[in-house]
Design goal:
- A hairpin with a 7-residue loop joins strand 1 and strand 2.
- Helix 4 runs parallel beside helix 10, helix 9 runs antiparallel to helix 10 and helix 11 packs antiparallel against helix 13.
- The chain is 52% helix and 11% strand.
- It is α+β, with helices and mostly antiparallel strands.
- It binds 5-S-methyl-5-thio-alpha-D-ribofuranose (SR1) and magnesium ion.
């Protein structure tokens, strides 16, 4: 009888046996190596490879609680959501996600293409690398996976069935708490606030009542706008990249929500990379070069999203009323406003909340880190409060540059 007929959390040794027994890619005699390589907050990720043939795969398994904190007890069903969404994303945005080889509902694990020739984008950006294809690829990924899953394009009963089938209450709750609530009040007593800026956080985040009202409005938009099948966690740690290729991974937070949640996450995480390079690059020429590239990546991501959205909308719109002149522009405007708000919410929560980003926490100089954090918080606040005025890529970049200048004055 197989050891894998009831669920348990695997070790590297178990994973070798599992791969030999369950995956046709390896023969039962294969000599396999394995390493746990996960650096995310939730799951275990094993790379399994056979030296002799050069074959390799990734096996990702979900545990009953999050790695980052045992506060989060989670259903292991999230691996099913992830595997199903990866397959769907592969159909909607071919070449921009890893191939799924197998999903195992008993062991709650998913076996997929090994992307070891790619690097995690956050790490690469912290090494000040540039990726000329990024804006082109990520805008295609977002427009295709988002617009094509809306009521604008889909038959409405099918879309409602999809809303039902992709309901994801546990992971949505994490976002509702960590993104839309705790950074503004620390009611979970688990914010990670960098001590030198604690008074700043108190004044700018915990005591700004006008901000709280805007965040509350955004929270209810996130919970109630079943607009598109969103990735739900599209940060630079969810992107594998090379200069020639972009692959989006980890869609376990996917559900029907507002499109701006994905676009805003991308913008905020480029903002973190910008702040990392601004703080870490001593050489003025190199710093300017990297910041210019990051600014153009933000600008092009937004502008290409708008351009491709407009093009795809005209080709794929099926709803009669969505063809009304002016509706597309109104709809896109609301997505850009949500994008700005989420760029702000993500900038703030990764700075002061439970799940921080290395781009900021790895800045060793206290003064420089404090400055970077203040820029993230203040850009974040203005993205949220002024969200209706962001209409193109330049608007997003200009805010970042303006706030950075003010802090550095
Ligand atoms: C408890 S999980 C913390 C964060 O990690 C994930 O990547 C999501 O961003 C989540 O908010
Ligand atoms: Mg993840």
């Amino acid at each position: 009888m197989s050891r894998f007929e009831s669920y348990f959390l695997m070790t590297v040794t178990d994973v070798v046996d599992y791969a030999k027994e369950k995956l046709t890619i390896f023969s039962p005699e294969a000599v396999l190596q394995t390493k746990e390589i996960g650096d995310g907050n939730l799951n275990y990720v094993f790379r399994v490879w056979e030296e002799a043939t050069g074959k390799s795969v990734i096996i990702k398994q979900a545990g009953h609680e999050a790695r980052i904190s045992s506060d989060f007890k989670l259903s292991t069903d999230r691996t099913r959501i992830e595997a199903e969404i990866l397959v769907k994303h592969g159909l909607l945005a071919p070449g921009l996600v890893p191939e799924v080889y197998m999903f195992d509902s008993v062991m709650s694990c998913c076996c997929m293409e090994d992307l070891s020739d790619h690097v995690i984008m956050r790490t690469a950006l912290m090494n000040h690398e540039k990726f000329p294809r990024f804006a082109e690829d990520i805008s295609t990924f977002m427009v295709n996976t988002l617009l094509l899953t809306t009521d604008v394009c889909m038959e409405h009963k099918e879309k409602k069935a999809a809303v039902k089938s992709y309901i994801n209450p546990q992971l949505c709750e994490i976002t509702e708490d960590l993104v839309y609530t705790e950074p503004y009040n620390d009611i979970g007593s688990r914010n990670n606030v960098f001590t030198p800026i604690a008074p700043f956080v108190k004044k700018e985040l915990y005591e700004d009542r006008a901000l709280h009202l805007e965040v509350a409005k955004c929270k209810f938009e996130f919970m109630n706008n079943t607009q598109a099948l969103i990735h739900g966690d599209l940060h630079t740690g969810s992107i594998f990249i090379t200069p020639e290729s972009t692959k989006v991974i980890d869609p376990e937070f996917a559900f029907y929500g507002p499109m701006g949640y994905d676009v805003g996450n991308v913008i905020a995480n480029l903002n973190f990379a910008w702040n990392h390079s601004a703080a870490m690059l001593e050489d003025e020429g190199k710093r300017k070069d990297q910041l210019d590239w990051l600014e153009s990546a933000i600008e092009e991501t937004v502008d290409l999203f708008i351009e491709k959205f407009n093009r795809l909308y005209d080709v794929h719109v099926t709803d009669h009323m969505a063809k009304t002149p002016g509706f597309k522009e109104w709809y896109l405007d609301s997505i850009l406003s949500d994008t700005a708000a989420v760029a702000g919410l993500e900038s703030i929560r990764r700075t002061v909340g439970l799940a921080n980003v290395k781009d900021i926490t790895s800045i060793p100089d206290e003064t420089k880190r404090a400055k970077a954090e203040k820029i993230c918080i203040l850009t974040g606040k203005r993205f949220i409060k002024e969200r209706s005025r962001f209409k193109n890529g330049k608007d997003f970049v200009n805010l970042l540059k303006t706030v950075a200048q003010e802090i550095n004055r």
